[in-house]
Every structure is written in structure tokens, then in C-alpha cells.
Amino acid sequence: MNNETHHDSTENQIERNAVLVGVQLPGTEQAPIGMYLDELKGLAETASYIPLLSITQNMTTPNSKTFLGSGKVDELEKAVKFHNAKTVIFDDRLSPAQNRNLETALKCRVIDRPWLILEIFSDHAKTREAKTQVELARLKYALPRLTKMWGHLSRQRGGIGMKDVGETQIQLDRRLIRDRISKLEKKLSQIDREKQTQRKSRIASFKVALVGYTNAGKSTLMNQLTEAGALTEDKLFATLDATIRKIKKNFPYPTLVSDTVGLIDKLPHDLIASFKSTLDEARDSDLLLKVVDIGHPNFRNHIKTTDNLLQEMGLSESPAIQVFNKIDQIEDAEFLLDIRGRYPEAVFLSGKKGVGLEELRQSITNSFEKRLTTLRANLSYNDSDTMNKIRKLALIVDEKYTEEGLSITVKAPIETKSRILKLIGSSSTNNNSSAKTSI
Question: Which of 8, 133, 169, 185 has its Cβ near the most Cβ atoms within 10 Å?
């Protein structure tokens, strides 16, 4: 490595130097600020920043102008200078005004947790859909912050006829961004229509969605259930696109599993809205597997965050199974016993080592069977085409051959009942349903 290359490498490294800032607000439900800052540090490192130190402040309410108190802003300014930090990352959402005021006071780039998450999503987006979703969310979040994100545009340039050109440039950029947002929203609407068509084609299958906090091990569990070969990495937001695969290994019913984008505390609302079509895999599912990393010290807050976000998505009443993953990391048997007592209906497993998978498979089977309805029909021997169509929609549990034809008993999801009745004719069908549609 020559001196010039080494110099460039050092310069690039310095540009990623960052100071983390967290505020502890009153409230019994709030996790200790240390846990949030540990997570913020993980997010910053995922986004290739180099966290140098963390600064915290206990406050009753954030300062409307600078979020922090004036004394803490002075302390932060000195820390930025001393450590030669180029970026300050706040754990909480900043208003556009707070962001601008802090950048003026600190003389460096200031971002908040939502923007940091958007940066990570932008780095990880691979497919057309994910890239479109992330770009839309970033533009919506950046629009009111244009003087921050594109600070160079607000500099006034001297010369004849150049008065207020900076202000004009920002106004122009705002219009261009609004136009781009409009185009992206239309593009996502088209993608959403395509996804809806795909989901309709899967109506005959039992649909299970893996949801939960980022890095809870959902993709590893997906691979164990379906042999999907989905990307598994020990880092935040390794999965952005919903991967859908069929459960294999002689599973008794046609069941599809989708691995959805990880959830996280203080997730940007624009991101939730932009990822509508991806998260619709969860909305369209028959069963949610709420996966949590039981080995994480803040797993209780992860459960709460997941439940809150599911409620925001309108999924709080959806059939669900709580899944405690990574039990291989727990050495305290009494702790595990206590959690089992608190969550008697939950499944405890290790996706990595394959422990507890059969219990999960059985729980999925039980959930499927609870929502089945029983139908009986008599078909003529010439009705082989109808029989083949029924097999795709229902489980044949009994077949009897008589002189008149074939007498069958099937179990089918309630959603496909009307389609089966149309196939075999309601006059020849005796509905003996005692199925339940919830768990």
C-alpha cells in the first residue's frame, strides 16, 4: 500500500467517526438508555459508522429547539471537536428545526435513528421492490429536511443575477423530490397489484408469516422449515424482501412460509408505509410466528415493540404463536422454566441447532386444522377432472368406491369452501362443519 492509498483510507475512516446521543425520558415502560444505545451502536456499525463514544442526558421533556439542554449541547460540541467526529447520531427522532439547529451549533452532520435505519435499508436493498420502497421512504423523510440533507444548496453564491439563487435551488429540489415521490408511489401501487395477484394464486395453501425483531433468527428458522437457502447473517436487517417457500419434509398440509422484514423500535413511519406490499405478506397470512431472541437482554421490550407494530399494521387480532428462539444460548435453567411458565402456549426452540422444530411444526399443523371445515360429496366416475381440482383445494381424508361413483370426505380451509361447493354442486354436498376460525 503506497502512502497516498493509506492517506485516502485514513481520511475515509475519519469521515465515518461518530458520536452517539441518547436521552432518558421518564416512563416505566421505557427500557434503560444503555440498552437503546447498545442497539444504536449496532445500527451505526451496520451502516459503516465508527462510534467513538456515547453521550446521555436525563430529561423530563426534550428541548424544542435542540432536543438536548443548552449545557449538554456545549458538552457535545467539545466532544465532537476532541474526537474529530464527522457525524452525531441521535437515538430519537429529531424535528427538522432541531436537526438544523444542532448542525449549526455542532458544525457537523447530524442524523437521527430513523434516518440511520433508512441508510441501512438503502445499503441492503437488492430487488426492484426493496429499492423502490426504501427510496420512497428516504425522500419522504428528507423532504422537510432539505436544508440539512442538501446543505450545500442553501449557500448563497455571489455575482450578477445570483441573488437568492440558493433559496430558489432548494425550492426547485423540493418540487423535483415531490415529482419523484409521486412516480415512486405509482410504481409501488403497480407492484402491490402484482403481489395481490400472486397472493390470490396461493389461496389453497395455509400461509404462515415469520415476524419479529430484527436479528431474531427468522431467516434461519425459515431455512430449517423449508430448506429455502435464505440469506442468514448475524447482523441487523439482513432480510428486506419477503421470501416465500413451501414447508417440506412430508408436512401434512400445503403450507407456505414467508420471511418478512425485521421490526425494530422507533421504526420510521414512512418506512412502514413504503413497505406495505412486503408487510402485506404478514397481513395476508393465516398464522403469525412471532419470533424473539430469548438470549437478548432486552427481549421483553422486543416482544412489546413487535406487538405494538403489529397493532399499528392492524394485525393485533391475527392468529399467532409466540416463538422463543436461540434457547441454546440460555444456560440458566430456572430462567427458561420461568419464561415457559409465563408463556405456556409458546414454542421454545433453537433454529440454528434444529432443537424444538417438531414442536413448532405440530403447532402449525394444529392451527391449520382448527380452521378446517368438513365437506362430503358424491362424484361420478366420469368426474375425474373435478376430483383433481378438489385435491388442489382440500385434503382428501376418505374415499369410498360405490356402484354409483366415488364418495369422498374432504377437509378444507373455510376460504376455499365456496369454490369446492361450486365444483361439486351444492345439491350433492352435505356440509358437516364444526371448524373454528381462530386459535
Answer: 133
Cα 357 to the center of its chain, rounded Å: 23
- Render 123-151 in DSSP notation, one character per residue: HH--SHHHHHHHHHHHHHHHGGGHHHHTG
Give the containing element (helix H, strand E) for 396: strand 395-401
Prediction pTM value:
0.76
Single-letter amino acid, residue 255: T
Q: Cα separation of 161 and 116, whole Å?
A: 39
The helix/strand/coil state of 404 is coil
**Cell reading at 89:** 447520531
State the chain's maximal CA–CA distance in angstroms: 100
pLDDT digits (tens, 9 = 90+) for 309-359: 888 888 888 999 999 999 999 999 999 999 999 999 999 999 989 899 999
- Residues ≥6 apart with Cβ < 8 Å to 427: none
Say if residues 88 and 108 touch (Cβ distance below 8 Å).
yes
Q: How many domains does the chain have?
A: 4
* Domain enclosing residue 71, as ranges: 3-120
Alpha-carbon distance 210 to 194, whole Å?
A: 22
- Do 90 and 171 fall within a single domain? no
Q: Which residues of 98-134 are buried (b: 16+ CB within 10 A; e: fewer)?
A: bbbbbbebbebbbbbbbbbbbbbbbebbeeebbebbb
| 418/390 same-domain check | yes
Q: Which amino acid is at 234?
A: D
- CATH number reported for the structural domain that contains residue 393 in this entry: 3.30.70.240
Q: From 343, 368, 393, give the residue that closes a domain.
A: 368
**pLDDT (tens digit, 9 = 90+) per residue, 25-73?**
886 456 678 888 999 999 999 999 999 999 999 999 999 999 999 999 9
Within a domain: residue 438?
no
**Strand ranges (E), 100-170:** 109-112
Question: Looking at the structure, do residues 7 and 114 belong to the same domain, yes or no?
Answer: yes
Task: Note whether 110 and 137 are same-domain residues.
Answer: no
